[in-house]
Amino acid sequence: MVKYLATVFFSLCSLVGFSQSDTSCVSRGNLPEAGVKATIKGCRFDHELDIRRSFFRSNFSLVLSDSSYQIVGFEFYYTSDEGAAYRGAVCDETVFIARYPLFSLLKEGGFFEFRNITIERAGIKYHTPDFMVFPVD
Question: Residue 104 sits in which domain range?
Answer without folding.
Answer: 2-17+26-136
